[in-house]
Structure formats: C-alpha cells, structure tokens
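Entry 0007
Protein: Amino acid ABC transporter permease
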Amino acid sequence: MTTSENGAPRRRLSPRRRAQRIRAVQYAVLIAAIGAAVMFADWSQVGRTFFDPGLMRDTVAHGLWRALWNTLVYTAGGFVIGLVAGTLLALMRLSDVAPYRWLATLYIEFFRGLPALVVFMAFSLLPLAFPGLAMPWPPYGTVWAALGIVGSAYMAETIRAGIQAVPKGQIEAARSLGMSSGQAMWRVTLPQAFRIMIPPLTNELIMLIKDSSLVFIVGLSAANFDLTKFGRAAANSNVNITPLVVAGLGYLIITLPLSIIVRRMEAAASKGR
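Output (structure tokens):
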C-alpha cells in the first residue's frame, strides 16, 4: 500500500486488475486504429486496385487453377525429396561414425543458414557453371531439387528430435528380441517417431508451399507458372493488384486446411499425454 499526495492511503492494483487495464488499453488502441483506417482510407480506390470483381473472375477463369495445381506439384515433389534426405541426415546426425555426424551437421547448418532465394538462384545458374548439365523433367526436377534441399535441412532436425523422443526402452526391447540396431531403427523407432513428427512435418510442408513462390527464378513458361508467378504476370499485364490478391487466396486454400489439421493433431496429442 502507498500514500497519495495528501497523505491518504492508496491501494495498489492487484496483478489481475492491472492486466485488465492493460488489456483495455490494447483494445482501445486497436479500435482507434481500425476507426482511423475506416475513416481515412479511400475505399473506392482500394476496391478498384485490390478487389476488382471483373478481374477476379478473369483471374480465376484464365489459369488460376492450373497455377494452383503446379504449386501443389512443386511442393509435393520437394517435400518427398526433403523427407527422404532429411531422414538420412537425421540418422547421420545420430550415427556413431564421427565423419557422418560432421557431414550432416555441416549440411544442415549451411542450408538452414542460407535463404531459400539463394538456393534457387544457385540452381538456376548451375548450367553456367557446369555446361551440359541438365536436370531431369524440367522445370520440375530443378524445383523439386531446390525445394528438397531447403526442406531437408529443416526436416532433418525435426526427424532427429522425433527419433530421440522415442523411449530407449523400445529399442532395448527390440534388441532383446534379436533385432539388429538397423532393424530396430527401421521397424520400431522410426514408425513411432513419425507419429510424433506428423504435426511439425506438416508445418514444414506449409513452409515449403510458401517457399515454392520462389520458383520464378528458375525460369518458367506460362503453362508452368506457380501461383505467385501467375499472379504477378496477370497483375503486370492488367496494371492492377487484384490478380496477385487472388493468387494469395489460392495459397490460403492450400494452407488453411493444413493449419487446421496441425492444430487438431496437436490438441489430440496433448490430450493423449
């Protein structure tokens, strides 16, 4: 308890009351910001620039679904490569052979530290460094390899953590049944680890979907445009941002269901503990 200027006792606010006041101030600031945006924004101009109904219809009718399909194909291939490579890297990180651990650590730290943009730029310039080099199934092979390299570095750490989360008693029980260490890993540890890793791996998939927006660097024909490249091309040709907004909504069509699935799996896992 403190005293006011006239000497009268003044009660201190309880932590709960203080939190309520801070929350009230935050709500007031948010409401004021929204009110200012409503009052001062030129909504007719916003509608014409970002949400033109005619351009929305044209964008959806002329190539959006093909671009969305290409985005899914790019992401799926990159995820499969990243998952396989990430599993091998995780096993190398856990290996008793020191050079394996060193190589895996170097790879993981290097590609986790590089922006995905740099990886895509490097792949686009490979034919200049190695004349005659050609990736199979262009442009899909190039995109899959670049996304797989980016994803594998992150997935490796997720998979390693999942493997280490499996109780050691499971491995010891498998070894007592006559399994070798490799058999115990593939038949006992990894199946249990992947059940643990499904939510974080789904988050990695969402990140790869967004990283696929960088595929424009490798050079694409109109038939191979991903959502971002398609939206940018349509926005430039129409001098309007609406197609890019529609392309962004295409990403939400893919990622929002995945995010909901992740939250439900995490909630189910927390209840099962």
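Curator remark: The first strand starts at residue 2 and ends at 3. The CA atoms of residues 135 and 142 lie 6 Å apart.
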